[in-house]
Design brief:
165 residues, alpha/beta, 5-stranded parallel β-sheet
Amino acid sequence: MDEQDTAEVIQQALPPPTTVHERHCFVVMPFGRDASEQKWFKGWYEVVIKPAVLEAGYEPKLAAAEEQPGAINDEIRAHLALDPMIVVDLGGAEPEDDANPNVMYELGIRHALGLPLVMMAWKGQRLSFDVSNQRIIMEDRDLVDLEANKKRLITFIHAAQNGHY
């Protein structure tokens, strides 16, 4: 059984997506280790990721930003299994930061399910072997690079939605 066959078996075992998740794009990214990093990641999400996801025709969902009761781990797993698209940001607060372990865990779940995803990282970031051969948006993240990141993210989302992931 090859990788595609395995993914098809897994997808058949999952419940069909409900209309609740129909246009969701789950965003997997670090939250930040301190107040400064949390502010940086929130800004990155608000200025780059969220507008790009909206422009690509999806409703962005960030688990840390949901204001409702419930177990966050259950919500994360539901989004990973049911959302038609996810964006995974492997970047840390600085280009030399390793990918966040929680982000890698969630990426692994999505990979195992064989469902569409788009990955982002800092330009020049050292990535683990398991993802280093993937097509990843790798750009600088300075103020002058924000628009380029948004445009590439929109392009990658459209490509993934068309089966190129």
